[in-house]
Records
---
Amino acid sequence: MHSKSSLQAAFDAVKERQAGLTLDFNTPLSDVHITQSLRGRTLLCTGGSSGFGAAFVTAFAKSAEDTAVILADLDVEKGIALQDALKAEGCAVKFIRTDVTDWESQVNLFRAALAWLSEISPGRSIDHVICSAGVLGGSLDIEPSHPAELDYKNLQPKPPSAKGIATGLTGSMYTAQLALKYGMSLHVGHDTALADKSLLLLGSLASYSGIALQSDYTASKWGVRGLFRSLLNDETSASCQVRINMLAPFFTATPLIPAQMLLYLKAKGVKFARIEDVEAAAMRILVDKRIHGRAVSVDVSGPFDLQDDWSGAYGATVLEGGIVQGNLSMPLVQVSQPRSRD
Ligand SMILES: NC(=O)c1ccc[n+]([C@@H]2O[C@H](COP(=O)([O-])OP(=O)(O)OC[C@H]3O[C@@H](n4cnc5c(N)ncnc54)[C@H](O)[C@@H]3O)[C@@H](O)[C@H]2O)c1
């Protein structure tokens, strides 16, 4: 039997080691560092036509010489417009129409992406993948019917939306599997200088809380967090040497959030994160080869390490700090009241 104090000492030692892993976003990377790290590198970004995805695609394409970017999205009009605008500036960008919820569509995406890359230079594979495709999905309708309206024999209840789960969670799982198994595999073990590969998942602060009755979205983002964790804790994913990280931003004004919800959140005093800070956090993760297994959030004050590990009480310590400061003044994080039928 361990004595309590020897166990405590062991816990303290692990805590100290983990605390040393916390990322400091106060010192931004220099432009030189970004250019050197991304020269000749490749990004595949789902959901790249709009919002965060469009910002990631644009920043990566313009970051250095000889980058190549595959932009995968359902939105053809916006995707082609962005592809053409970046091509006009001399960037190598290819839009591929993709429905991330459909396995065959994603298989075609990877097939077409690898074919295009090997046209640019033989044997070139994908270095970085960002799973940014997502939709808010629908809300759960649990409002009780009035007994007078109930007609049990003719009940035709509609199922709730699971589009958020299909797009954000299933879509990311499909992308992760294809990326790790085929998309990124060519360079691993061949040329260590070129071997830095990373997969960046898009969670959300909804991965750590619950948006009232937005169960589809909340469940999809908790699921993405589970996907992130499960990829870290496996010997196969460790041996393929791909860095796995997750971005979990707070509310940001992008087309994802309907105008009415945006007005509601503003009226509630929610302080939005800035899209430039989300973009900067993603670029930092892609460039910095030390960053692996980290969940990074972004609020009005910029990016920060969520400390989603034991030393940070799996994000709770950092989130509590944000709530106390008022940056994460969520109408979402509430302590549930006991319910009584009296
Ligand atoms: N905006 C926020 O407040 C916020 C906060 C945290 C996390 N996120 C997450 O960031 C990611 C990007 O969101 P955004 O805010 O940029 O939204 P957005 O609506 O601007 O972009 C999402 C993109 O995904 C694409 N898409 C939707 N369904 C698709 C499908 N089936 N196949 C392929 N593409 C599809 C859309 O066409 C769109 O271009 C999402 O995963 C979202 O959940 C957003």
Note: The domain at 28-325 is CATH 3.40.50.720 (Rossmann fold).
---
Amino acid sequence: MDRKLESVKIEGKDVALLSEFHVRFACMEHFDEELDDYVNDFEAAPDTHQAELLEDESLDKRCRACGAPAKIALLKEKGL
Ligand SMILES: [Zn+2]
């Protein structure tokens, strides 16, 4: 739901992350809310991906707000 990671596999590609920005998940219903929270908490707009494209088994892909299976991952990639 809310993790700090150095990198994550997205569609088979290792993507380096800015680890001070968390990896969060949201369902469609809470996406706008989570986007606002992300910007408030980290003072930067996140990069977003479909949650199913993140291949890290250890990730808890549930919406941070309601715990439902998430559709969108919010994270911050290095160098973008
Ligand atoms: Zn939700």
Note: The mean pLDDT is 95.
---
Amino acid sequence: MCEAQETMPRPCRPKGACSRCGGRALYVVRDLVMCRPCFLKHIHHRLGRTMNGPLSGSSRPNVTMRPPAQPGAALIALSGGAGSMALLDFLAERNYFGVAGAEYDITRGRVPPVWARAYAVHVAFPDTWATDGLGAKLREAAESRGLTYIEVRAADVYDTALEERVRAQLDGGVVDSANANASDNASRLDALLASVAAASRPTLLAHILDALLGSVAAALPVSHLLLGETATREAQRVIAGTAQGRGWSLPLDLVTLSSQSVARLRGARELSAKEAALYCHARGLESFSWRARRGGGIEALTERFVATLSARHPATVGAITRTASKLQFTGAGNEPRCPLCLRPADPGIAEWKARASLTALPGRQGGEKAQAEQLEPLLCYACATTLKGRKAAELPPYVLAEAAAQRPVSRDEMRAAIADCLL
Ligand SMILES: [Zn+2]
Ligand SMILES: [Zn+2]
């Protein structure tokens, strides 16, 4: 949906008065009519509730509750969309992160920041890095609020030295993607995208985005990765994920996993895309929507489905996210991870696939076939479908490294290992 349309404030009703203070109403959110200050307060309240719950371990969080200081820094993922811009603005307004050189004299009523430092990361995709000055605008938005801005490109998923590069360049103050292999990596990514069906490309890019955010977070001393995914986007992801056969591990995507070294927090998940866009309008923030995906794919279909349905039935998004929040992950938690999406792979699926799938077609040769055969049993059901019919193309190194770590030991290798112990 076009964000420009969403940001148009509703026309003021002739007798429109703010339902909270009686002032001149400008914004209509669900059944509430609000003036600008009340609307901003309302959005801050919702964002604060979502952020403060997981941070303070409280089941009844509120916006006035101040979460305890966190051990590491925060990494804010900026796509340029309204959700991430609104989240960034809220965190800066409420002093959630510290700014280098700033003093926090608590005796004068200043609250110490939740995170001593914060970074912002933007992953540029082939069809967005040409967008007029998007990177420069995001850099300006981040740096003007005291964050360190990091920009990586989707093709950097092929850069095995990405973590060192991010760390090394941080010391120098500049982080960019100008490395010697940039064009090689870009053509590798192009080849990979061309090797799968057109409908699988958005899913593949989403996994690459996930892996890159994980790599950048691992390179920095961060304890939290903050994502500006809105409720609308989450609803679309729930429907698309279910349709792709990702339902088994889906509940894990919707909660804050603090068991991992870097906890992922979705601060804007209680706001709809419209509310986030209205917030950006009210605060005069520029946001960029590049999600209008061309072509098919389950993501594009569900995006259109949710957008058209919620235009007529405003409760659609809420109903989907509320239902999804009740989903429970039934696994034991020690399942092997799928090397592509890095979510637990249902162990029963490999056996089911072995019975249900036809045997491999003859004709593929050499290392490519061996690589595919080694990878195939490790993939989760949804990723196996995404990569189905893949032509020869180099997989990102993280997939191969993960697969190598997971690969079951073959019978021969086992026998060789215990050869000396056999009676
Ligand atoms: Zn008001
Ligand atoms: Zn997977």
Note: The mean pLDDT is 80.
---
Amino acid sequence: MQRRTLLTSLASGFTALTLASNARSAAPFPLKKTATEWKALVSPAAYGVLFDHGTERAGSSPLNAEKRAGSFVCAACFLPLFDAAQKYESGTGWPSFWQPLPGALGTSTDYKALYPRTEYHCSRCGGHQGHVFDDGPRPTGKRYCNNGVALAFVPQGQPLPALRT
Ligand SMILES: [Zn+2]
């Protein structure tokens, strides 16, 4: 936690030194929509995270406290990304998972902070979800630090929404 806080303040204090905004390539995703189309489908806050590389304020997502069984799907295209059994309380103020569903995510390196971080996104629509770190719990040791606004929760027993096309 302390290291993370230090790095965060370093990063915010030296944004002028940021080398590159994002290294994500223009990889083709199965679902492609224009900015205008996405803006009509998702909230402004969700758009800012998903398609403008934003980060929600820590502690702001109601999904932090979500402890029911179920699925977390991409807020843009509804692809299931995490199972609730893979969620844990990281204490960071962002919904955190130790493993995604198979094939759900793609990754890239971003240099928005002073140090390179591994950004991850929905493999179907390319919507940015969060960053993955190596300080997670067993068995993977990974911490998928997710923006809650980029997810939607579907409790177990309720049907998953049809994938957006
Ligand atoms: Zn998606």
Note: Confidence is low (pLDDT under 50) at residues 8-24.
